[in-house]
Write a structure and sequence with these properties.
With 122 residues, this protein is mainly α. The chain has three helices and no strands. Helices cover 35% and strands 0% of the residues.
Amino acid sequence: LSSVLPLPKRFVLEFLRNFGLKDRAFYEFSDDEKSIIKKLFAYEFAPAGTFGFERAEVTKGGVKTIFLDENLECKSVKGLYFIGEVLDITGMLGGYNLHLAFASAFKVASALKNNQSNRSEI
C-alpha cells in the first residue's frame, strides 16, 4: 500500500502502524481495515509553521506551464523561454528538480537550435 499511494511512504507506514496494520496490498485488508485506510484520502492537516526560506525544500510560485508551449517558450512573447526552478513545477526530493533543470535546459536548447537551423535555410 505504501508504494502506491500518492503520499510519503514513511507517512503511510506510520499511519498504518498507528492503527496496528501491516503494509500489504489493498485487497488483502478487511472491509473494516479498508475504512480506516480510506481516511488517508480525506486527511486534513494544518502545518504549525515552517523553518523559513533557509530550509525550504519547495518554494511556491513561478511561471505557470499553461502559458508555455511544448518547447517552454512563452506563448505571448515569442523568443522568451523559461527553464528549471523558475517554472511552477514541484517534484519529489531526490534529484528530480535537478533533472527538471537539465531536461528543460536541453529542451529549450534543442528548440533554439532547430529555430536557428530553420532560419539559416530561409
